[in-house]
Amino acid sequence: MHTTTRNHALVLLIVLTCVPLYSAAKRCSEPTWEQLRDHFGLEPHPEGGFFVETYLANGSIPVSVLPDHFADSPDTRPYSTAIYYLLRAGPAYDDRSHFHMLAMDEVWHFYLGGQLTIVLLHPADGSVEVVKLGRNVLHDETVQFVVPAQTWFGAFASGGNYAFIGNTNAPGFVYQDWQLGNKTALLEEFPDAADWIEMLALAE
Question: Fewest CB within a 10 Å sphere: which of 38, 120, 169, 189?
Fold first, then answer.
């Protein structure tokens, strides 16, 4: 079995075996963030937390057939890419995904840990959207969410000790299609989101 396939199977097994079988009290203990880091070979992420690429499609798409907002270089994009991403919670860590924008849609998948909050700023109408990823799907959490292309968004672990999630992009992610948000510019464009911007945007 391919290593990536085995890793995906292990994540699914952990998720399924940690679901209550007969009552809320019957849960298995989840791994620590250190155990997940070591098992999956997660590397430090520039913004905090840890990640590893788990999928890079063999095929590619010419950038010439993509919308104009995609960067000119490189001249192709992989069909799709995927990563594991782990953000730790609490004041001891400064793990967060700062406000940024992608040229392509990005799917967020919840796997393990506590709640993850995603904050979206929509340039089309200036609206603010807050989404909670987590296992409490019968209330206000979801296990999957699509961040639309050309939307400012940031994220942080808002419950438990960490949030272990996955990101899938199509076309695949390249850094040339990633744009970091500027705090001053975002405050001018989205004044109603000032508290979120102060928390999740960089000054420069």
Answer: 38
Q: What is the pLDDT of residues 98-152, one digit of tens each?
A: 999 999 999 999 999 999 999 999 999 999 999 999 999 999 999 999 999 999 9
Contact 113, 34 (CB under 8 A): no
List the one residue out of 145, 160, 154 whose CA is nearest residue 110: 145
User: How far apart are the C-alpha atoms of 126 and 190, rounded to whole Å?
Assistant: 6
Q: Specify the residue for token string 């609490």.
A: 90
Residues in the chain: 204
The pair of structure tokens assigned to 86 is 């782990």
Token pair listed for 61: 């798409």
Query: CB within 8 A of 154, min separation 6: which ones?
Result: 96, 97, 98, 99, 100, 118, 119, 181, 196, 199, 200, 201
pTM equals: 0.86
- Distance between CA atoms of 122 and 71, rounded to whole angstroms? 21
The domains of the chain are located at 45-200
CATH number, span 45-200:
2.60.120.10
> Alpha-carbon distance 28 to 80, whole Å?
33
Q: Three-state DSSP class for 68?
A: coil
Look up residue 36 and give its two tokens. 């997940």
